[in-house]
Amino acid sequence: MNFFEETxxxxxxxxxxxxxxxxxxxxxxxxxxxxIDMQPKWFPVFYALAQEKEKTITELAKAIGHSHPSVSKIxxxxxxxxxxxxxxxxxxxRRNVVSLSKKGVEISEKIKDQLIDVxxxxxxISAQSQNKxxxxxxxxxxxxxxxxxxxxVMEKKKERDSLKIEIIDYQPKxxxxxxxxxxxxxxxxxxxxxxxxxALDNPQGYILDKGGFILVARYEGEPLGVCxxxxxxxxxxxxxxxxxxxxxxxxxxxxxxLLANAIIDKARxxxxxxxxxxxNTILKPAINLYHKLGFQKVxxxxxxxxxxxxxMELVIG
Amino acid sequence: MNFFEETxxxxxxxxxxxxxxxxxxxxxxxxxxxxIDMQPKWFPVFYALAQEKEKTITELAKAIGHSHPSVSKIxxxxxxxxxxxxxxxxxxxRRNVVSLSKKGVEISEKIKDQLIDVxxxxxxISAQSQNKxxxxxxxxxxxxxxxxxxxxVMEKKKERDSLKIEIIDYQPKxxxxxxxxxxxxxxxxxxxxxxxxxALDNPQGYILDKGGFILVARYEGEPLGVCxxxxxxxxxxxxxxxxxxxxxxxxxxxxxxLLANAIIDKARxxxxxxxxxxxNTILKPAINLYHKLGFQKVxxxxxxxxxxxxxMELVIG
DNA sequence: ATTAATTACGTAATCAGTTACGCAAATATA
DNA sequence: TATATTTGCGTAACTGATTACGTAATTAAT
Lengths: 317, 317
Hints:
The structure is a homodimer. The first copy, chain A, is of the alpha+beta class. Chain A folds into two domains: 2-146, Winged helix-like DNA-binding domain superfamily/Winged helix DNA-binding domain (Arc Repressor Mutant, subunit A, Orthogonal Bundle); 160-315, Gcn5-related N-acetyltransferase (GNAT) (Aminopeptidase), CATH 3.40.630. Chain A has 13 helices and ten strands. Chain A has helices spanning 12-25, 27-33, 43-52, 57-64, 68-81, 102-128, 133-146, 149-164, 175-189, 194-201, 203-208, 255-269, 284-293, and strands at 54-56, 84-88, 96-100, 165-169, 213-219, 222-231, 239-246, 274-279, 296-298, 310-315. Chain A has a seven-stranded mixed sheet. In chain A, a hairpin with a 2-residue loop joins strand 5 (213-219) and strand 6. In chain A, helix 4 packs across helix 5. The longest helix of chain A is centred in the middle third of the chain and has 27 residues, at 102-128. Chain A starts with 11 loop residues before the first helix and ends with a strand. At the A-B interface, helix 1, helix 2, helix 3, helix 6 and helix 7 of A face helix 1, helix 2, helix 3, helix 6 and helix 7 of B. Chain A binds a DNA duplex through residues 41, 56-58, 66-73, 76, 92-96.
């Protein structure tokens, strides 16, 4: 089980928490050292009020990055100590405008020395370290703002999954999976049609022998996606992309994208210049995928499928 | 009140907390992404067990840096899920030995991919930043281990206070404070003696005119500490350090140290080679101070004070 | 062999935050 | 003008941690 030993950096969350605790734990005693009767958790609110004089509960919450009930509670505690005073906003009766009381302003005077010393202590630690914590936090905040950890992990997962997916040529043993995967989604959203059965029951005769191709996507050896390139006897298009199906088991693994990409490559290698496809706008993820791949909406082509309500083409560059 | 604007770095605690929150908040969803039924708070325990196979509650608590009740609760939750199993230690009936169950081991297999991806995501963030958070945390942990934030702040306070303290020569207007500060501590711990009154009621005649000195420490203009150097008619010692008194108001401000240091300098500038003093072991802070200044215990000198149970001397280098 | 101190650990109470919810005031919309 | 939506904020319930405390087992000291 020593696999875990190599995955150290996932512990960054824990390490951050522990450091936060260590930095924070002395706070109460530091106030005592300066004879200031204040709870550490009040400080951000206090600080915000000292800077801005007047603020409503919600403004304070936003300023210090807490929820408003948290601020509400803190204010009621500080009120009991007489450090702040409340007053209703004249023009907006919902707002509770909070400001430091005379006693609060006195405390803010007393606290100055403490802030100077704490600041000096932190600067000392910074000066003694090679790596700048303050700046590093800033960078992490920025980077996580740009893209959350969840999103980054999702990308990494997709990347790694892609490596596990192999796209291979159709073989007769895949006829069953080719059929079942397609039947699954077609009958989920629509009903199977005559033309479907022709292609799915006899891919060899109906697709391959006519100059088309079928590709299969395998994930860890298991076939979980299929896609066909049907030769078209048409002056305009070389192939039709059809019978694309991915198992629900493989959802979110990028199988559709890899499969479609491979089939386009195949068409390109065969000298095709234009690919056609038919779909239905109910199938939003599919439409998005086609769009991402460069397909553009076209109209006017006759189709044997009743479920077709959108037609698209891709000009191969 | 824009003073506060300049004291930015005290906010390091808040910034750390917020970053911790941000890094942590996606955790639950990341588990969901991999279809792993686990609460984020279980992970450290899980991880520790995956590395070491068997551990008691207390060992786990130490390993993950939580309190033991916290681990106790987590284990009982994981037990309900069937991820761990408990068993009493045979040789020590108090110990609750915990290990992963079969189901737990299965989860640990499933979780590997997730760890790889999370790790990759964190490495990506690290690679995109100039400042190294991971290393910076390590340095801070080390530095705070060496000396806590509280201790550092205390030092800064002392430094700053020292600057505010001035040591000046005795003037007649300080006779009252010289008397009252000494009476205060003497009568708190002992009773005033004949010799005390002589010196305190008439410092001019009893100390200064005989070739002695008195120094006064002022904190923000207010006299809060006194110390005398009494000329001795003795073949061995030049002066006696006596009547040192610091107001309780100035406790913790290093006044005693500065005062004693100044009086030793005074003696040195007068060509003294040995200073003597008398005290009582009840007065621990005072004895510590004398020790810190280099005074050594001696014995055998006759003394007029009944409260004296320790005698010390300093050889001036 | 008692007695005292220490250790392991579970339960209870507490704490500092959160989310959920509901009321009232203000604002937007029909 | 009536009605719906949004906003401000307080209360309540929950969460993940803590400290405090009690009990039982072990170890040390007399």
